[in-house]
Specification:
With 147 residues, this protein is mainly alpha-helical. The termini are far apart. Helices cover 76% and strands 0% of the residues. Helix 1 packs parallel to helix 4 and helix 2 packs antiparallel against helix 4. The radius of gyration is 19 Å and the shape is globular. It is built from five helices and no strands.
């Protein structure tokens, strides 16, 4: 299968996972299983296969920015990097949905977090942490022996 076909397949799988998260109140267990396990594992398998097959012949590396740019100049390695993003962002998105549900965050507040995580992964994670911190109760200091 060509890198372009694998790219399209990976994108379609990731979009299916994100759609499942958006509609997760309808089938929470199935949505979280699909988006939090099945699709990320499939993308991780694609990533690992591409790295094993093409890493040794790739130019560049992780030492400098030009090395990273050279590394991703090879289509198969760029696809591996893309699969990495798709897998980890979707995994984090599933964590966002699961955490929001367990902490009683309404789904309408979770949807913007999912969109942000889908488009800009770490920014969505940051926004989720800010929302969680803003909803956490402040610690109350009470003298010992008082309820």
């Amino acid at each position: 299968m060509s890198p372009e076909a694998l790219f399209s397949l990976a994108n379609s799988a990731a979009l299916l996972g994100w759609a499942a998260l958006c509609f997760s109140p309808l089938a929470p267990y199935s949505a979280l299983l699909l988006a939090g396990r099945v699709i990320p594992l499939a993308l991780a398998t694609l990533y690992t296969g591409l790295v094993l097959a093409f890493w040794s012949g790739a130019e560049g590396g992780f030492s400098t920015l030009p090395d990273v740019m050279a590394l991703f100049g090879q289509p198969e390695i760029a696809l591996a990097g893309w699969a990495h993003y798709l897998a980890f962002d979707l995994f984090v998105g599933a964590w966002v949905a699961r955490t929001a549900r367990s902490e009683g965050v309404p789904h309408y507040l979770t949807l913007p977090l999912l969109l942000l995580t889908f488009l800009f992964g770490p920014a969505g994670f940051l926004a989720t942490q800010i929302l969680r911190a803003s909803r956490a109760p402040f610690p109350v200091l009470q003298p010992k022996g008082q309820p």
